Amino acid sequence: MKFHAVLDIQLHAGIADPQGSTIERALPTLGFDGMSNVRSGKSIHLDIEAADEAAAQSQLEEVCEKFLTNPVIEGATINLIEAS
User: Fold this and answer.
1) Is residue 58 within 8 Å of residue 80, measured between CB atoms?
2) Three-state DSSP class for 76?
3) Which pTM value belongs to this model?
């Protein structure tokens, strides 16, 4: 089966996010009020072939843990969509 995956990688709560803080400070000066708790991260989109959704999820969790994130300070959310 083929899946499209979106991996959203974010810093864990409590870890300083200087990029998010810079964005948050800039928003009011650009006329965007009422926004707070800005956190930045990265999003990785990819296609994966696996026997089933559970196998794809497991493989993506492993690649996130071993390669795409620093598990000490980052976590990943994996969203899978079956490709048609």
Assistant:
1) no
2) strand
3) 0.85
pLDDT tens digit sequence for 62-75: 999 999 999 999 99
**Hey, what are 34's tokens?**
């009422």
The number of beta carbons lying within 10 Å of the beta carbon of residue 76 is: 19
For residue 40, what are the contacts with CB-CB under 8 A and spacing of at least 6?
17, 19, 20, 23
Q: What is the DSSP letter of 67?
A: I
Task: Determine the distance from the C-alpha atom of residue 29 to the mean position of all C-alpha atoms in its chain, rounded to a whole number.
Answer: 27
Asked if residue 31 has pLDDT above 80, the reply is yes
**Residue 63, token pair as written in the block:** 């690649």
Nearest to 60 by CA among 43, 51, 48: 48
Partner residues linked to 76 by β-bridges: 9
DSSP string for 14-56: TS--HHHHHHHHHHHHTT--S------EEEEEEEEE-SSHHHH
